[in-house]
Amino acid sequence: MQIAIQPASGADLGDLQQVVKNYDIRGLVGDTLTEPLINALGAATADELELAGEELVIGHDMRDSSPAYARAFAAGARTRGANIVHIGLCSTDMNYYASGIRDAAAAMFTASHNPASYNGIKISRAGARGISLDTGLAAIRDRAADYLAAGIPAADQLGTETEADVLVDYAVYLRSLVELANIRPLKIVVDAGNGMGGHTVPAVLGTLAGLAKLPLEIVPLYFELDGNFPNHEANPLDPKNLVDLQQRVVEEHADLGLAFDGDADRCFVVDEEGQPVSPSAVTALVAAREITRAAQSGEQSIHVIHNLLTSRHVPETIEGTGATPVRTRVGHSLIKAEMARTGAVFGGEHSAHYYFRDFWGADNGMLAAMHVLATVGANTEPISAIAARHTPYFASGEINSTVADVPAAYERLVTDFGPGGVGASMDELDGITFTAGGAQWWWANIRPSNTEPLLRLNVEASSEALMAEVRDRALALIRS
């Protein structure tokens, strides 16, 4: 039996190549991302992950297109025999929670921090395990192309559809991982950016889920769910989107501020003076807490993941607490795979993704925020002082340059910085990283974008002047 779908157009098939990225699916609503395409992707996911007779959790964010897209995906997957569990409005880490606690595959409809014209799908294997182009997404893409061209044959047994509300259980679970009941009273400003943080923060940190009141006074900014993002983009990585939070923290004399991205899986921190706290500082802070907890439980060999763009202070902190740092490439699915391979208790990225073994190795911005609150609440000093101790070095931040000839730019960098030039050591774990040691040390990483003709530069050094010198020299080579 064939399920009737619209005949595929050449554009539909071509759009699959555009929207299936390295770690997720992302495209323009109604343009490169259409309901027939999503229907086919749902069927393909059910086949590739062998979900006939198995559960598939489906959740979505607050974007206008998300509910219809979730239904289209569910219809395709159900046609191929998957039993759909709709969890409705949720953050991405709520979706991971449902996948982990039910040991079921999951699909989350969101475009994260992208503007309102975008949407996408984050797919997880059972237990919130990641999936990438190399580990299943390419196969899903190719199966979907076949279904778009020929239709979707029904499985011998169609899947079922049920609904589940996981918000309360999610909130209870997170509170079981980080104790906040006995911290000193804190006043915090939270900018949800009209994204899913407006749904989860009142449940986890407030009393919406019926949980006991915590010693937190929450000043909400943009908690109204609105996928059109009327106030600012839900992308805290861009400094302009932190301005409202920074001003409000100072006006309210708050202890700190939190900013979540659109699907609330990333969290950025602002100190009491309105200054951003580096995600590397948060990584070091949370790593120390998780290592201490693991050691107190009797673990002898403790590992923590950090990608190669986090500050040198991160592995120094990990080693200083007796654990083993594991340096990895940048990338969501890569970090998840390393978390599983090493049994790491925690992992952190420069982009404010934080991964927890107690959360199935998945990333959870809310859980990272709770660790920060626990640290500040257990100390009398302000977060600015705590953050300063975890930010001893000087970083450029990520600087993007449009480059027509990437190999030629690489050659110029190697000639100037490498063994035949400055004499820095080199590795190619992810792009090229140059490292020069000694009392005056620095490192510089140059990585190509996966989707655009860009080179991304990150530099860190022992002094601000040295960082600026290396940064400017590298940019001149990249852009010449």
TrEMBL record:
<keyword id="KW-0413">Isomerase</keyword>
<dbReference type="InterPro" id="IPR036900">
    <property type="entry name" value="A-D-PHexomutase_C_sf"/>
</dbReference>
<feature type="domain" description="Alpha-D-phosphohexomutase alpha/beta/alpha">
    <location>
        <begin position="173"/>
        <end position="274"/>
    </location>
</feature>
<dbReference type="GO" id="GO:0016868">
    <property type="term" value="F:intramolecular phosphotransferase activity"/>
</dbReference>
<dbReference type="InterPro" id="IPR005841">
    <property type="entry name" value="Alpha-D-phosphohexomutase_SF"/>
</dbReference>
<dbReference type="Pfam" id="PF02880">
    <property type="entry name" value="PGM_PMM_III"/>
</dbReference>
<dbReference type="Pfam" id="PF02878">
    <property type="entry name" value="PGM_PMM_I"/>
</dbReference>
<protein>
    <submittedName>
        <fullName>Phosphomannomutase/phosphoglucomutase</fullName>
    </submittedName>
</protein>
<dbReference type="InterPro" id="IPR005845">
    <property type="entry name" value="A-D-PHexomutase_a/b/a-II"/>
</dbReference>
<dbReference type="GO" id="GO:0046872">
    <property type="term" value="F:metal ion binding"/>
</dbReference>
<keyword id="KW-0460">Magnesium</keyword>
<dbReference type="InterPro" id="IPR005843">
    <property type="entry name" value="A-D-PHexomutase_C"/>
</dbReference>
<dbReference type="Pfam" id="PF00408">
    <property type="entry name" value="PGM_PMM_IV"/>
</dbReference>
<keyword id="KW-0479">Metal-binding</keyword>
<feature type="domain" description="Alpha-D-phosphohexomutase alpha/beta/alpha">
    <location>
        <begin position="284"/>
        <end position="391"/>
    </location>
</feature>
<dbReference type="GO" id="GO:0005975">
    <property type="term" value="P:carbohydrate metabolic process"/>
</dbReference>
<dbReference type="InterPro" id="IPR016055">
    <property type="entry name" value="A-D-PHexomutase_a/b/a-I/II/III"/>
</dbReference>
<keyword id="KW-0597">Phosphoprotein</keyword>
<feature type="domain" description="Alpha-D-phosphohexomutase alpha/beta/alpha">
    <location>
        <begin position="18"/>
        <end position="141"/>
    </location>
</feature>
<dbReference type="Pfam" id="PF02879">
    <property type="entry name" value="PGM_PMM_II"/>
</dbReference>
<comment type="similarity">
    <text>Belongs to the phosphohexose mutase family.</text>
</comment>
<feature type="domain" description="Alpha-D-phosphohexomutase C-terminal">
    <location>
        <begin position="398"/>
        <end position="474"/>
    </location>
</feature>
<dbReference type="InterPro" id="IPR005844">
    <property type="entry name" value="A-D-PHexomutase_a/b/a-I"/>
</dbReference>
<dbReference type="InterPro" id="IPR005846">
    <property type="entry name" value="A-D-PHexomutase_a/b/a-III"/>
</dbReference>
